[in-house]
Structures are given as C-alpha cells and as structure tokens.
Specification:
Radius of gyration of chain A: 21 Å
Structural class of chain A: mainly alpha
Largest interface: A-B, 39 and 39 residues
CATH class of the largest domain in chain A: Mainly Alpha
CATH superfamily of the largest domain in chain A: Farnesyl Diphosphate Synthase
Strand order of the largest sheet of chain A: 1-2
Oligomer: homodimer
Number of strands of chain A: 2
Strand content of chain A: under 5%
CATH architecture of the largest domain in chain A: Orthogonal Bundle
Number of domains of chain A: 2
Largest sheet of chain A: 2 strands, antiparallel
Shape of chain A: globular
C-alpha cells in the first residue's frame, strides 16, 4: 500500500509532466496555464487511493486520475467566465488574462483533453469507466446550472440545495473513487460503496465550507469569513435560517442582506447573531456529522481489510476537522 | 444496400426521436432547440453510408452517426457565441434567445451528450472509435481558433488557410466516414481511404463555398453573394488575389476592402473585377477539381465493388455541381 504522501507525490509528478503545448498557441496556452495553477489535486489522489484499496498495481488508474483532474479544471475555467470571477488560486482567470472567446474555446479543448486520457485504457476498462465519467460530467453541468438558477430564484429549499451541491461537488468526488475502484478490480458492490462514500463526504465537505465561511476564525486562519453573507449567497445556513425564522426575524434577515447602507462587518455581525439565535451552527454541524457517518458506514461495508481503508478514513476525518 | 433517401429517412427519424429534455430545463432546452433547428445532416448520413459500404447491417453505426451530428451542432452553438452571430438556420442563436452563460453551459452539456452516444458501443468498437472521435473533436477546436486568429492576422498564406479549413471542416467529415467504416467492419486501410476521401471532399466543399459567395447567381438562387468581400474575410479567393496581384493592384484591393465610403454593391463589383483580372475564379475551380479528383482516387482505392461506392460518388459529384 502507498501512503497518502506517496500518492500525492505520484500525482504531482504526473501533473508536472503534462504538456498541453501545441498549435495554435492561443488554444493550448490557457490549458497549460489552468492545469498549472495548482489546487489540492483531491480528485486524482482519490482515484489512485481507491484503486490502491483493491490492487497494489495502480498504473492503470493514473490516466483516469488525470482525466478527472483535467475535467475538474475545465469546469473551473468555464465556471469562472459564467461567474465573472477575476481571480482563481491567486492568479488571473483565463477570461481575464486572455478573453472570453479564448476561455470558451480553450475550455472546450480542455474537456476533450480530459476525455483523451481515457483512450489508453484497455477496451474492457474503457467500456466500464467511460459511462461513469460521462454521466458525472453531465451532472456537474446540471449542478452549475442549478447554482446559477438559484441566484435568481426567490426561495430555495434545503432539498434543492442539497441536490445542487451533490451535483456540483459530490458526484465528481464519488465518480473519482468509483472509477479508481474499477481500475483496481473492485466488485460492482464495492465500487458503489465507494461512490456512496464520495457522495456523503462531498456533502459534508460543502456544508463544512458553508459553515466555515461564517464561523471560521479569520484572524487565526487568514481567510475572510462572511463572504457568503455579503453576497447573499443561498447557503445551507441561510436557507435553514429562512426556514426556521419566525416572520419578524425572516423579514429582518431579508432586509439586512439587501441593505446597502450597512457596512460589511456590521452586516456579518448581525446576520451571525440571527444564525446564532436560530441554532443554525448546531444544525449545520449535526448535518455534517450525519453525512460523515453515512460515509463511514459505506467505507465499513467494503469487503476489504480495515488497513486498506486507512487513507480514505483519514481523508474523511480531515474534512470533519478542517478549520479553514 | 440502402439508397441515399433511405439513409436520410433513417437519420431524420432518429434525430426526431432525440429527447434531451431533463432538469434543469435551463440547461437542456437549448440543446433540444439546437438539434431541432435542422441543417442538412450530412455528417450522420455519411456515417451510415460509410458503414453500409462494408456491411448490410448499419445498426451499430446509428449511435455513432448521432454522436457526430450532436457534436457538430455543439460546435455551432459555441461558435455562434464567439462569432457573435445572431441567426443560424433562420432562427435566433442560443446566446441571443437565452444568454451567453446558458449558451456556454448548454454547449458543454451538449458536447458531453455527443460522447454519450458512444457508450452503447461494444467494448472493441468503442476502443477503436473513441480516439478517432476525440482527436477530431480537438482538431475542430484548433480550426476554430485559427479561424479567429486569422481575423487579426495581417497576412494569411494559402497553406495556412487550407490547414485551417481542413481542421474546421474536413476532419469531422473525414472522421464521420472513417468511424462509419469501422462500424461496418472495414479494414484499417479502407477506413483510412474513406478518411482521405472526406478530407479532400471537405476541402473541395469549402473552396466551392468561397467561390459561390462571389460567383453564385444570386437572382437565380436567392443567396446574397459577396458577403465575404464586404466583411473582408480572408477566403481562398482573397488570399490568392493578394498573392497574385502586383503591388499597385494589391494596394487597390486592400484599400477597397477597408473603404467605408463605398457602398456594398459597388465594393463587390470592384473586388470581383480584380478577381477576374487575376484569374482567381479559374484558379479556384482548378483547385476544387484537384481535391475532387484526389477524393475520387481514394474512393477508387477501396477494396469493394463499384456499386458499393455509388452513394459516396454521387455525394462527391453533388459538391462539384452545386450552384448555391
């Protein structure tokens, strides 16, 4: 078995070796730039880790890992155009550094490049992994569309929100794990247990993200918190606050969020006070624990020795314990 | 063997059956709209026709035909954003009817839907066709990027132009034929002969397009000609006119194209007169014939009876004889 550090080292080396340079430069340079901007490389590491649960030989899973990482980065490239984001990972986004047309077309080519990593797979593995990859790719688009739709939608229910973050975040993590498991020769049952593990860990991760935006200690961790409150983003916290509030509190929160005369610091303070009064922090923590527990149950259901699950178990626990 | 009308009927029925409806509607409606706007459905018909050259059973090729047609329509959807085109096939383009973000994301989903048609293929066919499809998809992006780059580029050589139209137009026609041939069980050699046939027919088609824009009889065929002259598009005709002109004529043509004080009709008349003086019509016709002949040679090289080639032969000849 590889250690998590070894898997990370393998994938970083593979990503460093990637060379998307080609002609026309205007098409390929933004792809090389995007894949080179860093990120935690969580998805490709999960592909390798899942493969390693079932097999000592993880070679076949490397190209699959790269397919998922390149696809993930393609989605960021196109999302940044749609969300009009100027900065990603401390660097200019492609549509700002170049222009919208370049970002659209380079993104298209980057998605095709993601698929390209699958072509080296043996026919039987390709046949199994291709639909997993493809269905997931489509779901990620659905998630991004819901996310954009929700900005204009007056009310978003908790269920709608959970479905959106499942599509936008969880399914790609889940599919990375499932595809890795298939590469490692896992049974269908075990591959699906890992998929479920990924779905629930993804949900826990996103709810933790929502929570930390309001409750992270910004002085300690250097991350500006409260940004979701300032932008009025319909997060798990805000949706539940609207749900739980009496009519007076509901109106107060609604007015507060759209009030442009209040400075940001004060707005965050007042919204947080309402969240506190409604027990939103506790409720969110309960839900994170719920999804974490579901994930662990899926991991426990795998038909392999406990020692094989250690990396994925620590991964799940690290999400629970992250503070920023 | 099927007749061309029968193949057309089969593909139109299959396209009519397509149902991209799903949630969120904002993602899927533009896909259904785009595939429903019509077009000549040349690529999917060529997939079936190529398959039918080698096999009486063309069932396996139908999903491949749909993959190519949906991919082609995806490229139009994204190209229309980049080219800022308001109308396609007499209907509003997606980015005008909806908005840019919807057009970007629905386009992404549409590309994934194109790949989706390949997943029903048996493992060995998938393994063979997937890289053909993928390489071609990437080349089409390269062609579009060159096309956009050329607008800003002072001089474009004939060679650069031919490479661009090969990537933007020919490779997808060629790959449709090759993939169809593979479905029909063609040998590698025969599949590649059909690929070459497609490349050359694609080039002949595009040069014919350039020619007809200037020399089609607009009264008879109702197609406005001279549009490329008005927009100053670097077509095969214009590139060769610049190449062949003496310095005085070169300057005259250059000045004419950027002169905003001359009305369109007069501009077309004067540019056409220069083309005539330089023998550009004849030169273009010679080149069309050259690529047509190359295509026919590839068709003649196929290891099948002549009667099997009839549909593709008429297709090639129809390109030579089209008048609008």
């Amino acid at each position: 078995m590889y250690t998590i550090n070894q898997l990370q080292e393998i994938i970083l080396q593979e990503i460093n070796k990637l060379n998307f340079k080609g002609n026309p430069l205007t098409l390929y340079e933004p792809i090389q730039y995007t894949i080179g901007t860093g990120g935690k490389r969580i998805r490709p590491i999960l592909v390798l880790a899942a493969s390693n649960v079932f097999s000592d030989d993880i070679d076949a899973s490397i190209s699959v890992a790269l397919a998922f990482e390149v696809f993930h980065n393609f989605t960021l490239l196109h999302d940044d155009i749609m969300d009009n984001s100027p900065i990603r990972r401390n660097k200019k986004t492609v549509h700002v550094k170049w222009n919208n047309n370049t970002a659209i077309l380079s993104g298209d080519a980057m998605m095709i490049k993601a698929y390209d990593f699958l072509k080296s797979l043996p026919a039987d593995l390709l046949k199994e992994i291709f639909p997993v990859f493809n269905n997931t790719a489509l779901e990620v688009c659905e998630g991004q569309q819901y996310d954009m739709d929700f900005e204009k939608q007056e009310n978003v229910s908790e269920l709608e929100y959970l479905n959106m973050i499942k599509l936008k975040t969880s399914v790609l993590i889940a599919a990375s794990l499932k595809a890795g498991a298939i590469c490692g020769g896992a049974s269908k049952k075990d591959a699906n247990f890992l998929y479920d593990f990924g779905i629930n860990i993804g949900l826990a991760f996103q709810l933790q993200d929502d929570l930390l935006d309001v409750y992270a200690d910004s002085q300690k961790f250097g991350k500006q918190s409260g940004n979701d409150i300032i932008t009025g983003k319909k997060t798990f916290l805000l949706i539940n606050a609207f749900e739980k509030a009496d009519y007076k509190t509901y109106l107060k929160l609604k007015t507060l969020l759209s009030d442009k005369s209040i400075n940001n610091k004060e707005k965050i303070k007042q919204a947080t006070a309402i969240f506190n009064k409604l027990g939103i922090k506790h409720l969110t923590e309960l839900n994170i624990r719920k999804y974490h527990k579901k994930a662990i149950n899926s991991l426990n259901s795998l038909s392999v020795k406990d020692e094989k699950k250690e990396i994925l178990l620590s991964f799940a626990n690290s999400i629970m314990n992250r503070k920023h």
